[in-house]
Amino acid sequence: MTDATAAQQFIEAIPHSKALGMTLEEIGEGRAVISMPYDTRFIGDPATGVIAGGAVSALMDTCCGAAVMTFPGARGTATLDLRIDYMRAAKPGQRIIARAECFHATRTVAFVKATAHDEDEGLPVATASGAFTMESVIRPADTKTGTKKEGAQ
Amino acid sequence: MSRPRPEPVQVVKERRDRALKTLVGGIPYVQWLGIQFDRRGDELTATLPFDEKLIGNPFLPAIHGGVTSAFLEITAMIELSWSMLWEDMEKGALDPQSVDDAHLPRLPKTIDFTVDYLRSGLPRDAYARARVNRSGRRYASVHVEAWQDNRTRLFAQATGHFLIPSRDKTA
User: Which UniProt keyword terms apply here (chain A) (predicted)?
Assistant: First the structure.
C-alpha cells in the first residue's frame, strides 16, 4: 500500500510524464496502468496525424518503470533495455493506455512486459519488453558480502 | 564534350538546408522536444537541448528514459528519410522546390526499436548520430548512438527496423 502510494507520488512528480499528460490509472504488486491523452503536439507523422512512436515509448517506459517500483521489495529502478514492437498506428484523437507487468525480478534485475492500446481493445498498438535495474530493499544476507566490486568510475 | 559548370556552393547548400528544414520542421513532436539537426554534407547530427520537461528522475536528476528513446528513434527516422531524400535530390529525381509543407516525403514507419541504456542521461544537451546499416526496397535497419559531453562515452544506443514508404508517391 505504502509502495503504491510512493510509486504514485513518484510518477506524478516526473516532469516528463506530466508534460506528456500521463495519468496513473492503476498500480500495485508489480503492475501498472498509465494513460496518455491524444495531443496534436505529439504527432509524429503530419500526413496522418498519428502520435509519434517516441511518445508511445515514453509512455511504455514510464509504465514499465512504475510496475517495477511496486514489485514487492523494490526500492528504485532504471531502464537497462527496452524493446518496442509497433503493431499498428494508434487512431488519431484517441488516448493510449499502457499496461505493464513485472513478471520476474531477481535482487538486481527486473523483467517487464507491456502492451499499449487505443480505444480499440483488440490488437495492441504496441508491445514492449524490457530489463530494468532492481534496487531492492537490502536484506541482512546481502550486507555480509564485503568484497563488493564496483565498475570503473 | 564539356562538363556543365558546377552550381555555386551557396545554391547547393541552401537547397539541401531547405529540404532538411522542411523534413524536420513538419513533425510536431520533434518541435515539441526541441530537437535540431546539423548537417555537414550528407551527415546529420541531432541535438536535444536540455529542458526541465525532459526530466524523468527529479532526484538525480536524469533525463527520462522515454525521452532518450524518443530522441534516438527520431534521429534514426530522420537519418533514414534524409538518406532517401538526399539520393533522390542528388539524382535529380526529386525537385527540392517541390518539397514544402504540403508535399513532404512520406516518413518511414517504425516496426521495432530496441534501446540499450548505458548511463543515465545527465541534465544537459545530448547529441545523436544514426547509420543506415541496410536499406532495401521495403525494410531498413538503422543503428543510432547518443552521447553528451564525450563522443566516446555513449549514454544510449539503439537499433530499429523501419518500413520504407512506397517510392512512387512523395505527397
Answer: Hydrolase
Domain boundaries, chain B: 9-163
Q: Are A87 and A109 in contact (CB under 8 A)?
A: no
Amino acid symbol at A97 = I
A59 interfaces chain B, CB cutoff of 8 Å? yes
Q: Which among A29, A32, A54, A30 has a CA at the least distance from the CA of A43?
A: A54
Quote the pLDDT of residue A138: 62
Strand partners for A35: A23, A97
Chain B's closest residue to A60, CA to CA, is: B66
Q: Would an 8 Å CB–CB cutoff place A131 in contact with chain B? A: no
Q: Under an 8 A CB cutoff, do B53 and A16 touch? A: yes
The CATH number given to A2-137 is: 3.10.129.10
Q: Between A137 and B87, name the one with better pLDDT.
A: B87
The pLDDT score that the predictor gives to residue A4 is: 63
pLDDT value at residue A150: 41
**Closest-CA distance of chain B to residue A12, Å:** 11
Distance CA B56, CA B37 (A): 23
C-alpha cell at B117: 541504456
User: Which CATH architecture fits B9-163?
Assistant: Roll (3.10)
Helix (H) / strand (E) element for B12: namely helix B9-25
